[in-house]
Write a structure and sequence with these properties.
Elements lengths: L13 E7 L8 E6 L7 E7 L26 E5 L11 H15 L1 H4 L1 E11 L1 H12 L21 E5 L11 H14 L3 H4 L5
Parallel strand pairs: 3-4, 3-5, 5-6
Antiparallel strand pairs: 1-2, 2-4
Helix pairs in contact: 1-3, 3-4
Amino acid sequence: MGSFREIDPTQFARYFLDVSYADEDPRQVMDVWLPNEGEGPFPLIVFVHGGGWVSGNKRENTMPGVFKFPSQGYAVACVEYRLVPDVHWPEPLEDVRAAIRYLRAHAAEYNLDAENIAIMGNSAGGHLACMVAALAGRPVMNGCRYGNLDQSDAVQCLVAVYPTVLPPKTRLPQLTATLCAAIRVRRAWARCTTSLWA
């Protein structure tokens, strides 16, 4: 998918930079990129950057291949989240879930299809993407307090690129079962998965 680089926002005709999805921290922002053509509503790919939970940001650590999706009719939102050691677990997860709820609440404003949201991430972002997919709508780590709580944080598709996961001896049986269940459910979003790699 290419090497990491600073993203040039001018490659798209329609974009929204540094959209605040919560107001507790300046890092709770995202960039939203829309296809240059069409009126939507556009299916959405939420991308979560890697960086070991301690570094990275939404522009310098986003996989360049993600920006092929707008030319295929997908909107892309690159989420920035708070990093360790400034915050502790599960705040990064709560940030990503809050971003999804914000996007769903503002779907009409950005011409998004609120019922067709995929989450994609690499490395630590892949881990967060897996956790979002597994825990959406479940009362586990559901301490979110960042607005739009009337909206779902569910996603219909999961793409985890070399996700960071727990070592085998620390895997909890409940977490493993939850992730496996989420992966089975998320395979159903055929409209996303058939064209993601085109």
